[in-house]
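Run: sequence + nicotinamide-adenine-dinucleotide -> complex structure.
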Amino acid sequence: MNDLNRVINPATEEVIAEIPMADTAVAEAAVEKSVIAQREWIRMSLSARRDALRAIAGTVRDHVEELALLECRDVGKPIAEARGEIGGVAECFEYYAGVVDKILGDTIPVEGGVDMTFREPLGVVAVIAPWNFPLPIASWNIAPALAAGNSVVVKPAELTPLSTIRFGELVAALDLPENLVQVVTGPGRVVGAVLTSHPSVAKISFTGSTETGQAVMRSAAGTMKRLTLELGGKSANIVFADADLSRAIKAAPGSVFGNTGQDCCARSRILVERKVLDDFVAGFIEQTQAMTIGDPESESTHLGPLVSAAHRETVSSFLTDDVDAVLAGNAPDGPGFWMAPRVVVAPDPGSRIVRDEIFGPIAAIIPFDSEEEAVRMANDTIYGLSGSIWTSDVGRALRVARAVETGTVSVNSNSSVRIQTPFGGFKQSGFGRELGLAAIEGYTELKNVFISTAE
Ligand code: NAD
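>> structure
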């Protein structure tokens, strides 16, 4: 281990932990230990592996408050949300405990024998996680990787490692193969570089920015690693005039300002049919102003701070003098990396606010005149992660849902993620799918076996 990483509470700017940063040797040793752990794991019975995943879920449930408070202080996430997210982590392990003995193959009709397929584990999986939903996103990858018979090395983001470190300790205290799940803290350019190039790592599950995802792809190419990449987004929330407008308005602020906008699925482009634009804008601003911004440890807080001073600077860079932004709330003065929500109505279609992922509390509301135009605008982005359609016309809902180039889309809802359903991106939002049974494909190789029945 080399330097210490000072972890800061973004709501107070206090140092809340000092974490050792792994160097190359530590990261390499973790991979080598993971190879041994995987051999032991795959020799265990199906029922023992199922019970192990249940035990992980159980220990997370027993420590929900502790893990939620770590997440709250580390990310600046409101405690009520953090609690819900950690509950989701336990659910994720419970779900994949049930999958362990349901990883099926096919029998395929062929001449001269019997042909069958098996899904074999890959070996060592490296999970590289972002700072916005630290333990939930790590769990979406750790749980299916383990269920499919792999071992895991997890690298949390430097800014927010605390919940993942504690999770690693809780898992290590269970009666599981030693080093089955290891947490290695450290910088992306050091630990990430080892994990993405080490010949004994079979797969990288990376969640982060599109730019870093491209670097991960390049590094992983040398050893032909399997990849799941969950990257950036610029999702559209399309509101048609025939929608239940009050429901759409009520749901919209949370879908862009939740987690203070630091959400890959943030619907930061709200496309509104021009006939209802004024009503939508007025309602949206009113609902946003009703959100409580402040102490993340208070149960009534809706929005906490941004994760760091540097990130607040990046987000603020979108608010140039030529941007006409409506301030829709009051943030505390500081200490803390606070930023109140901003709403920009009808921005220039070529502007950064419309095109780039902001990852902060800035929403663009953009008018459209026809279904065709709405679809064209929704697809006019390099990203394709999530999105929503608000309409009372079932035919239109299905037409638009099929036409938008995005991995997940909700009708009359702004939800994106369910443990049972596949989640992932089109275009430069990445590839591969997390969650649901689809995730298992990403953690297994398909093997074909032919047995001759010739006499
Ligand atoms: P980031 O790309 O800066 O970092 C993500 C992780 O990659 C961190 O753990 C970091 O240490 C590591 N890393 C950095 N350089 C690396 C390298 N060269 N090799 C290997 N690993 C390296 O992203 P972030 O700032 O933590 O997260 C924000 C981004 O993540 C946003 O773009 C957001 O949209 C995206 N995100 C996507 C999803 C999704 O599911 N699609 C979910 C959450 C966040």
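>> summary
Residues 24-43 form the longest helix (20 residues). The longest strand covers residues 113-121.
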